[in-house]
Amino acid sequence: MATEKPVGIGFVGCGNIAGPYAKSVLTHKDRLKIVGAADVDPARAEAFAKEHGGRAFGSYEEMLDCDEVEIVVNLTIHLAHAEVTRQALDAGKHVHSEKPLATKRKDAVGLVSLVKKRGLLLGCSPFVILGEAQQTLWKAVRDGMIGRPLEAMAEMMHGRIESWHPNPGPFYGEGAGPMLDVGCYPLNVLTSILGPVESVRGAAATRIPERTIASGPKAGEAFRVITPDHVNGLLQFACGAGGRLGASFTVAKTVHTGVEIHGTAGALRLESPTSFNSPVQFCPIGSKEWQPVPYVADPFKGIEWSRGLLDMADAIRTGRRPRCTGEQAAHILDICLSILDAAEKGKEVKVASTFASPEPVYT
Question: pTM for the complete prediction?
Answer without folding.
Answer: 0.95
